[in-house]
Design brief:
heterodimer; A: mainly alpha; MetI-like fold; about 0% strand; B: mainly alpha; 14 helices
């Protein structure tokens, strides 16, 4: 009896905490759907009284189509998808070799890779900027895509996973005359899909949300990613909160959908980072 | 028997290795060199010894203000975030499976939304006239005057701390829950047989056995906190005055607005050495205590 009562209190406490945690996100959507003249009306309404798409219409038509939110959305999508696919593929190739091959210099190479895992990317922005400038890639999406491809952590995580794949499957394929490449594509890669999915989601979200580096290398509005575009937008339209929250909502919706579709991977992926 | 070197394993590593050398290894070495160089925009480079450290770190009062703000911000937010994470995880762990997954999702969701968006929303919440925060506080009669959250130098840094504290420590909760599920149930059974109540069990068994997770979270959060950039850039630009100037934004402005690459590199190297020492503390501590979960 006592236990039942305690459990109710626990759930109520957790619900209160969850309200605090989710309030900013909720308030973003409420403001986005509130007409301009109601936003500054007091007291604020927790549920929009006259919901409207006006703010969304305005933000998509704000400037010429080349510099608009839809262009930024497209840029973010191009960057995130390209980085995720390439980085995953390149990392998986290397991880296969590190996990299942014997070769000279393996240990040294592997530790060279993972020793840089602790170096925060922020420290490297200046030399990276000079490098990208020298390669003539400033103000292009390549400047964001290429440096994001090497992923020591991804190699580390995929190697752990590939080490646990039983060897007899690989041996059997080898006896049948399969080459290393065939074994990699036909056997190892399909068996690594759970790890690849978790890593892929994390890579995608990291890229989608990335701010500092795109801010440094992109200068023309038609090249902006969503995050850089939003940050400049909020400098130009300081007071138009309906418009800004509509933009923020558009930037968040794909990630929120991804979160609900792949929810269990978020938990597993994080556990993998720790373990 | 003749031994032949099989190059296949190297070919598999080659693409990753090339990207790694160009976009990680080379920048790391270049970052170290730049800190001791005078770099002109024309590309002219000259070694200047420790001059950048003298000008950009030792003699630069703004760097010390930024360092003070960053340390203060981290000291306040990190322990609170981790502690809140522990409490919420403990509570969630008591729930049935269905509720557990509901709360996991609810507390983790805000963590996947971009910091730019989160900062924009909080700037709106902090708006002195129409922002939700002042409106709620006024309505509950906790304040009589609207608080000038981000616009006064007295409240600006505490406002950023408040934002961090009220943001859900989603990943801490997930990691704590994973660690809790690894604690053997037999320990609790033994403790109840000896008459320990639930709080004693939590304090004497759960919390000590989560030590490694706690330490890991403290270190990781401190490292992240020392690099705080987006919130400052979007919400305050370091102001008013220097009230919210922190190290990472300062380095950004020095490098990409003033084009002082040498000085910014010296400051970045100092920041890196601080981060490195924080993570070394963790390695030393964990090795001494040993892993027990």
């Amino acid at each position: 009896m006592m236990w039942k009562q305690n459990r109710l209190i626990v759930i109520i406490l957790l619900l209160c905490g969850a309200i605090v945690a989710l309030l900013p996100t909720y308030w973003m959507f409420v403001t986005a759907f509130t007409p301009e003249e109601d936003i500054i009306r007091m007291p604020p309404r927790m549920i929009p009284q006259r919901p409207t798409f006006e703010n969304f219409r305005k933000i998509f038509l704000l400037t010429d189509p080349k510099k608009s939110l839809s262009k930024w959305f497209l840029n973010s999508a191009i960057v995130s998808v390209t980085v995720t696919l390439t980085s995953l593929f390149v990392s998986a190739l290397a991880a296969y070799s590190f996990a299942r091959k014997k070769f000279y210099g393996k240990e040294i190479l592997f530790y060279l890779f993972i020793s840089t895992m602790m170096i925060p990317g922020e420290i490297l922005t200046i030399p990276m900027f000079l490098l990208v400038k020298k390669l003539n890639l400033l103000d292009t999406l390549w400047a964001i895509i290429l440096p994001a491809i090497p992923a020591p952590f991804g190699i580390f995580m995929l190697r752990q996973f590939m080490q646990d794949i039983p060897y007899d499957i690989e041996e059997a394929a080898r006896i049948d005359g399969c080459s290393d490449l065939t074994i990699f594509f036909r056997i190892i890669l399909p068996l690594t899909i759970p790890a690849l999915t978790a890593l892929g989601i994390f890579t995608f979200i990291t890229q989608w949300n990335m701010f500092l580096w795109p801010l440094i290398v992109l200068s023309s509005p038609e090249k902006y990613t969503l995050q850089v575009g939003l940050a400049t937008l909020q400098e130009q339209h300081v007071r138009d909160y309906g418009l800004l929250m509509a933009g923020a909502s558009v930037a968040s919706i794909p990630i929120i959908i991804l979160f609900f579709v792949f929810q269990r991977y978020f938990v597993r992926g994080l556990a993998a980072i720790r373990g | 028997m003749k031994r032949r070197i099989d190059i296949t394993p190297y070919l598999f590593i080659l693409p990753a290795f090339l990207f790694f050398v160009v976009f990680i290894l080379y920048p790391v070495i270049r970052a170290l060199l730049l800190a001791f160089q005078d770099y002109q925009l024309t590309g002219e480079v000259r070694f200047v010894g420790f001059k950048n450290f003298v000008d950009g770190v030792i003699k630069d009062p703004v760097f010390w203000i930024a360092m003070k703000n960053t340390v203060l911000y981290s000291i306040v937010r990190v322990p609170i975030n981790v502690f809140v994470g522990l409490i919420i995880a403990t509570l969630i762990y008591q729930c049935s499976h269905r509720w557990q997954s509901v709360f996991r999702a609810a507390y983790y969701l805000p963590g996947v939304i971009s910091l730019v968006v989160i900062s924009m929303v909080w700037k709106w919440l902090f708006n002195p006239n129409y922002g939700l925060l002042n409106q709620l506080l006024l309505k509950m009669q906790l304040i009589t005057q609207p608080i000038p959250w981000l616009t006064s130098s007295k409240f600006a840094l505490p406002s950023l701390m408040l934002m961090a504290i009220l943001s859900s420590p989603g990943s801490a909760i997930i990691l704590y829950l994973a660690a809790m599920s690894n604690i053997p149930k037999s320990l609790y059974e033994a403790a109840s047989l000896e008459g320990a109540d639930e709080f004693t069990q939590w304090w004497k068994i759960t919390v000590p056995l989560l030590n490694n997770t706690t330490l890991y979270l403290l270190v990781m959060n401190t490292i992240a906190s020392f690099q705080v950039f987006t919130q400052v850039y979007v919400m305050t630009k370091g102001g008013p005055g220097y009230a919210t100037t922190m190290v990472a934004p300062l380095i950004y402005f020095r490098a990409f607005k003033d084009y002082e690459f040498g000085i910014a590199s010296a400051q970045a190297l100092v920041l890196f050495l601080i981060i490195l020492s924080i993570s070394l503390i963790q390695f030393k501590y964990i090795r001494r205590r040993g892993e027990y979960i």
